[in-house]
Specification:
There is one protein chain. This protein is of the alpha/beta class. It folds into 2 domains: about 5-180, Rossmann fold; about 190-310, N-(1-d-carboxylethyl)-l-norvaline Dehydrogenase, domain 2 (Orthogonal Bundle), CATH 1.10.1040. Helices cover about 55% and strands about 10% of the residues. It is built from 13 helices and 8 strands. The chain has helices at about 10-20, 35-55, 60-65, 75, 90-100, 120-125, 160-170, 190-205, 210-225, 230-240, 240-260, 270-280, 290-310, and strands at about 5, 25-30, 65-70, 80-85, 110-115, 135-140, 150-155, 175-180. Helix 1 (about 10-20) crosses helix 2 (about 35-55) and helix 11 packs across helix 12. The mean pLDDT is about 95. Belongs to the 3-hydroxyacyl-CoA dehydrogenase family.
């Protein structure tokens, strides 16, 4: 397997090092600060030991041996398939790092930023001609060795080959990529998280429920279902007749809730039709009962585990 570089030795950099090394890549972790590299070395060992206890890493010593730490950026990126940039959330810092790395990395190497919100077109702006074709955002769930979703966010300049190369590296490392179009700030993960968090703050502000009570709704309600199925599949399975029936019955109430918060984003017939078409491609209505039964069986199977976790928390 081709080596991979991780630029930035903070917690997310260490997490990516585990992801790639666990999959068999030689990983070079770079950081300009010796103290950061020393801390990362200790954190890597600690995380691998913890994963090993739970059976998620078979041989922590073998995984650790694939990770090296370097202060020389040119050495770190030599011959890599991909550099995972984990620098602070500043455009200028990310640009400078990628510009310098590109001087020593192979011509086909992909530069993937772990940015949570910065658009890849902003990172690519003002960089040398052609470099933008190899830049995208690879935004992970945190920590990626336990939360496998990763958002691939290309700019309009990003080459399709760079996206597919990154997708191949991530998929082989056990991550589950989705492609985000149009570069929305916050991408998908943080926009969904942000929508829930904004409403949670409003509910606290309005005295509707306490912080812990709202967390309990997620812990014992939404979160349990969402660990198995997402929001579209949840409402699709909650209503006989599926998503179309749910939108017809509940759409007006959700529109009123949105309007109460100053949002005017109704579920128009065209939008509902698009969502229904995509859901029915994934699950024909003649399999609806089968999928509902599957959902319930998975919730039953996981309930003792969840209750055990709650009892010890």
């Amino acid at each position: 397997m081709e080596p991979v570089a991780v630029a930035g030795a903070g917690s997310i950099g260490v997490a990516f090092a585990i992801v790639f090394a666990r999959a068999g890549h030689a990983v070079r972790v770079w950081d300009p600060y010796p103290a950061a590299l020393e801390r990362a070395h200790d954190e890597l060992s600690d995380r691998l030991d913890q994963l090993s206890v739970h059976g998620l890493v078979e041989n922590p010593n073998a995984v650790s041996a694939r990770v090296t730490f370097a202060r020389d950026l040119a050495e770190a990126v030599a011959g890599v398939a991909l550099m995972q940039e984990c620098a602070p959330e500043r455009v200028d810092v990310k640009q400078d790092l990628i510009r310098r790395a590109a001087q020593s990395a192979p011509g086909q190497a992909v530069f993937a930023s772990s940015s949570s919100a910065i658009r890849p077109s902003l990172i690519a702006a003002d960089l040398p001609e052609g470099l933008g074709e190899r830049i995208l955002v690879g935004h992970p769930g945190n920590p990626p060795y336990l939360v496998p979703v990763i958002e691939l966010v290309p700019s309009s300049a990003t080459a399709t080959s760079a996206v597919e190369r990154a997708r191949a590296v991530y998929t082989a490392a056990g991550l589950r990529p989705i492609t985000v179009s149009h570069e929305p700030e916050g991408f998908v993960f943080n926009r969904l998280q942000g929508a829930v968090l904004r409403e949670a703050y409003c509910l606290v502000r309005d005295g509707v429920a306490t912080v812990d009570e709202i967390d309990e709704v997620v812990r014992s309600g939404l979160g349990r279902r969402w660990s198995l199925i997402g929001p579209f599949e949840t409402v699709d399975l909650n209503t006989r007749g599926g998503l179309e029936s749910h939108a017809e019955k509940m759409g007006p109430a959700y529109a009123r809730m949105g309007a109460e918060r100053g949002q005017n984003d109704p579920w128009t017939p065209d939008l509902v039709s698009t969502a229904v078409r995509q859901r029915r491609t994934l699950l024909p209505l003649d399999r609806w009962e089968e999928r509902v039964r599957w959902r319930d069986e998975q919730l039953m199977r996981l309930t003792p585990l969840w209750e055990d976790i709650r009892a010890t928390s």
